[in-house]
Design a protein that fits this description.
The chain is an alpha+beta fold. The chain folds into two domains: about 5-165, Butyryl-CoA Dehydrogenase, subunit A, domain 3 (Up-down Bundle), CATH 1.20.140.160; about 170-290, Nuclear Transport Factor 2, Chain: A (Roll). About 55% of the residues lie in helices and about 15% in strands. Strands 2-1-6-5-4-3-7 form a seven-stranded mixed β-sheet. Strand 3 (about 240) and strand 4 (about 245-250) form a beta hairpin. Helix 1 (about 5-25) packs antiparallel against helix 2 (about 30-45), helix 7 (about 120-135) packs antiparallel against helix 8 and helix 8 crosses helix 9. The longest helix is centred in the first third of the chain and has 24 residues, at about 5-25. The radius of gyration is 21 Å and the shape is elongated.
């Protein structure tokens, strides 16, 4: 068996799991197959000999491809829940493989697909990879360009939505926007007390490598300390949607330079991430909400 044949055989050993990941991310058999095919093409372009954990590498690639596909869906979205999309994988892919059946069994219900389709792309990825495939948050975080803590919060939000399928994210996101808007206003006004009230007592602020090189602290803990770093600042920051959630962005000349990602629980800010790495920013779905 030559090297190309060996690589193809190794890939085929992971195909079932990769397709299950992609289907749960996209709710579409056709798109799932496209994502898996893209993973195969990227594997062929990579140096497979340098990949220590092929399964993990392929899962990461498929997840990133699916995330890009979710983010690129336009307002005129395809009806990804059509029976012609998911019926074939249920009715016609009877491989007799118990692992295959186990991977798909809990995700093929239309009700679950409907709920998953209401999630923001980052939420959906964190939930699918962690809750359905036991991928650690340390491995999910780099895919999203977030910290493991933020990835955990995304999965937690998604889990609540899945466990209460009759709800929609609109109310939660309205609260998030109100909290972030109030925080930015208090920051511009230098209202230290208002900032503290909006923060969880154990709030933490983290910054990525590029933001630290620009002068930000890598980590700040406690409501008072975080409020101090923002008091009288963030004057040029704009309210924005970051992967579907309320956040903020500093974008001089319309070019995002720093994104502020907020994790909010029960109306309080528990974490703020400062992202300035251009590669991370390019992976985010950003929309400025005010001028």
């Amino acid at each position: 068996m030559n090297q190309d044949e060996l690589l193809a055989e190794q890939f085929e050993a992971h195909r079932t799991r990769l397709r299950a990941v992609a289907y749960r991310m996209l709710s579409s058999v056709t798109e799932a197959d496209d994502a898996v095919q893209e993973a195969w093409l990227r594997l062929n372009r990579a140096n497979a000999n340098e990949v220590e954990n092929l399964g993990g590498w392929l899962t990461t690639v498929v997840a990133r491809v699916c995330l890009d596909m979710l983010r690129s869906r336009t307002a005129r979205r395809e009806d990804s829940l059509d029976v012609h999309d998911y019926d074939p994988i249920i009715a016609h892919e009877d491989t007799g493989d118990p692992e295959h059946e186990a991977l798909l069994a809990d995700s093929l219900g239309v009700a679950l697909l409907v709920v998953l389709d209401t999630l923001a792309p980052a939420e959906r990825l964190a939930f699918v990879l962690h809750d359905m495939f036991a991928v650690p948050f340390d491995e999910i975080a780099p895919i999203l360009g977030r910290t493991p803590t933020a990835a955990r919060q995304l999965a937690s939000r998604a889990r609540r939505r899945v466990q209460t399928p009759g709800t929609t994210p609109d109310a939660d996101r309205t609260v998030q926007r109100q909290v972030v808007d109030a925080f930015l206003a208090a920051s511009r006004d230098g209202d230290f007390e208002a900032l503290v009230r909006l923060l969880d007592p154990d709030a933490v602020q983290r910054a990525d490598r590029v933001a630290v090189e620009a002068g930000a602290s890598s980590e700040v803990r406690g409501a008072a300390a975080v409020a101090e770093t923002f008091s009288g600042r963030a004057r040029a920051a704009k309210l924005a949607l970051v992967d579907g959630f309320a956040g903020a962005v500093w974008a001089p000349g319309g070019q995002p330079r720093v994104v502020f990602v907020f994790t909010i629980e029960e109306g309080k800010i528990v974490e703020i991430e400062l992202l300035a790495d251009p590669e991370q920013l390019a992976r985010l779905d950003l929309a400025i909400l005010n001028d």
